[in-house]
Amino acid sequence: MQNKTVAIIGGGIAGMQAASVLNRMNYNILLIEKKDKLGGHVGEWTYLFPTLRPAIEVSSNIIKEIKDKKIDIKLNTLVKNIEKDKKNFRIILSDESTITADAVLLSTGFDLFDASIKEEYGYGIYKNVITQADLEKIFAKPTKISNPCGKIPSRIGFVHCVGSRDEKSGNLYCSKLCCVTAVKQAIELKKHLPESEIFCFYMDMRMGGPLYEELYLEAQLKYGIHFIRGRVSEASEKIDNSVQLKVEDTLTGRPLKMTVDMLVLMAGMVMSETGKQLVKSANIKLSESGFIATQDMHIKNNLSSMPGIFVAGTINSPMSISETLADAKSAAFEIIKYLEESN
Amino acid sequence: MEKEKKIFKWREYQKEIADDHYFYVRSCIRQNFFPGSETAFLNILRNDLKKDVFDDPNHTTCTGIGYHTDIVPIETTMTVIARQFALMTEAGYENLAVSCVTSFGLYSEILDIWHHFPDVLAKVRENLYKATGRKFEIPKNLAHTSDIIYKFRNEIAEKGKYRLINSSTGQPLKVVEHIGCHYSKMFPEKGVGGAEFPKVLSGMIESWGGNVIDYPERRHCCGFGFRQYVVQANRGYSVSNSKKKFDSMEPYNPDFIVANCPGCTMFLDKWQYTIAELDGKTYGENGQGIPVLTYEEMAGLILGYDPWDLGMQMHQVQVEPLLDKLGIKYDPQLKYKGKNNIDLGQPYKPDYSYAK
Question: Whole-prediction pTM value?
Answer without folding.
Answer: 0.92
